[in-house]
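Suppose a colleague, Dr. K., hands you the sequence of a protein chain of 402 amino acids and asks what its three-dimensional shape might be. Before reaching for any lab equipment, you can write down a predicted structure in C-alpha cell form. Begin with the sequence itself:
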Amino acid sequence: MSNDQQSTAAPNRPYQIITVGLAIFSMFFGAGNLIYPIAVGMRSGQHVLLGTLAFSITAVLLPLVGIVGMIFFDGDYNRFFARLGNVPGKLAIISCMVIIGPLVAIPRIVTLSHVMVAPFIPIAFMQTVCPTSSFIFALAFLGTTFACTYKESRFVDLLGITISPLLLACLLAIIVIGLFTASTPISIDSSIATIFAQNFLGGYETLDLLGAIFFSSIALGAIRKSTGPSASRAQQALTGLYAGILGMVLLGLMYAGLSIQGAFHSHGLAGINAGEMFREVSLRVLGTAGGLVIATAVLMACLSTAMGLATVVGEYVHKVIFKERICFVSSLILTLAACMPLSVAGLGKVLELTAGPIVFVGYPVLIALTVCNITYKMTGFKPVKLPVALTFAIALAIYLVW
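The predicted structure, expressed as C-alpha cells, is then:
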C-alpha cells in the first residue's frame, strides 16, 4: 500500500472498528440475552459475580473464540465447515441454517419479544379479545425485520449507528438506576460448585458460538466492502478482531449489569415465565414510567439479532438453495415466511426446541470443530473428523444417560 493510500484509509479505521463492533454487539444481544443474565442473578444471589464469570465463559469468551476462528477462514463459513468433508460440512451448514432460522432462533426472538413488550404496545391489549394477536405481532415484527434488512448495503451501518446506541442507552439506564437502588441480594443456599456449573451450562443456551460463526461472515464482509482494495487481508483481519473484541466487551458488561439486576431486584419472581423476567425486573427498577425504555430495549435487542439471522439465512437460500435464480429480496421473504408457524406457536413450544440435543449434543460438536480449526490454522494440527466424531459420541451418550 502506498503512503497516499495509507493516509486515506487510516482515518476510517477507528470508525470501522466502532461501527462494526457495535453491530456485532447488537447482533449478539437478542431476546435470550435479555433473560439469561437475569436468570444468572436469580440463580447466583449473593454469589452473582461468580455466576456472571461462569456464564461469561460460555456466553462471551466462546463466541469471541468463534470470531477468531472465522477470521482465520476470512469469514467464509463454507471453508470453516468444509474441513469435516464435503457432504458432512454441507449437512452441518444446512442444520445450522435451520436452527438459526425457522426452527429455533428467529421464532424464539419473535415470541420472547411479544411476551416482554405485551403491556407496552396497544396490539398486546388485544390478547384478551383477539386470539390472533400473536399472529399480528409476528407479522409486524417480521415485516419490520424485512424492511430493515432487504438492502444489504445498509445493514451494518443501521445496526452500528442507529440500533446499537439506542439499545445501549436503554440498557445503561436500567443498569445504572438498578445499581443505585440495589439493597439486598437474593439468598442462595446452593454450593459454589453448583452455582458455577449451572451458569456455565446456562451460557450454552444463548447459542452464541453458532451466531459468532455466521455473524462474523457479515461483519468481515462489511469490513472488506468498506476498505476495498486499499487494505491488506491482514489489516482487514485485525480490524475484524478489534471490532469483535469491542462487541464482546460490551456484551460482557451488559451481562454483568443485568445479572446484578437479577440478583438484587428479583425477589419473589422465582416462578415467573422466562419471557417476563427482564420486563418485571426492569419495571421494579424504573417503575411503570419506564415502560417506553423497557419496550425500546426489548424491541431493539430482538430486532437487531433477527436482522442478522435473517440476512445470513436469506443469503444462504439465495446463493445455495436457489443458486441465485431468485433475488436476495425474494429469498429473504421466503426465509421470514418460514419463520411464521413457530413464531405464533407460543414461547413454551419454542423454548422446548432450544433445549435438548441442539444445545447439549450439537453445541459441543461445534465447539470441537472450532477448536480444531483454530489449532489447524495456528499450529498445522490437521485432525478434525475424529475429534469431532468423538465429541459427538461422548455428548450424545451423556445426554441420553442424563
